[in-house]
UniProtKB/TrEMBL annotation:
GO terms for cellular component: bacterial-type flagellum basal body; plasma membrane. This is Flagellar protein. The chain crosses the membrane at residues 31-49. Belongs to the FliO/MopB family. It comes from Modicisalibacter xianhensis. The keyword Transmembrane applies.
Length: 147
């Protein structure tokens, strides 16, 4: 009987330890889930702020950045379009200097996005046929060598 009660006591101790382990894992899982939820909310809020953030109340219809290039570590030359006029500005060292002013060129009609897409599609199809032809030609040569 003493051996049976010892075995029963050991079994109860093991089941208590397993219960504590399961309880600890459940708490750890809940904590991890809560942390993932908080991180998800933070990422969602940052995405929303980027899309509809402060200072994005309206589009800048009058001001458009046409081009920009760096001419030094902190200096840039920027072309800005303001109501049909291009301003060439030098930006650097906390200063903005107007370098030149000229009328904006008339917007050129694009050759057509369909023409560009067809050109790319045609080149892509040609490249795919070329690659397929090379692949099958090589595999036929290899299979001929094995025979």
């Amino acid at each position: 009987m003493s051996q049976g009660s010892a075995t029963q006591g050991t079994a109860e101790a093991l089941s208590g330890a397993q219960g504590d382990t399961l309880l600890g894992l459940a708490t750890l899982g809940k904590t991890a889930l809560a942390l993932a939820l908080v991180i998800g909310v933070i990422l969602l809020c940052s995405a929303l702020l980027k899309r509809v953030g402060p200072g994005r109340t309206g589009h800048n219809r009058h001001l458009k950045l046409v081009a920009s290039t760096a001419v030094g570590q902190r200096e840039r030359v920027v072309i800005v379009e303001v109501e049909g006029t291009w301003l060439v500005l030098g930006v650097g060292g906390g200063e903005v200097t107007r370098l030149h002013e000229m009328p904006a060129p008339e917007p050129q009609e694009p050759a057509g996005p369909a023409a560009d897409a067809d050109g790319f599609a045609a080149r892509f199809a040609t490249a795919m046929r070329h690659n397929a032809r090379n692949k099958f030609t090589r595999s036929d040569k290899r299979s001929g060598e094995d025979v």
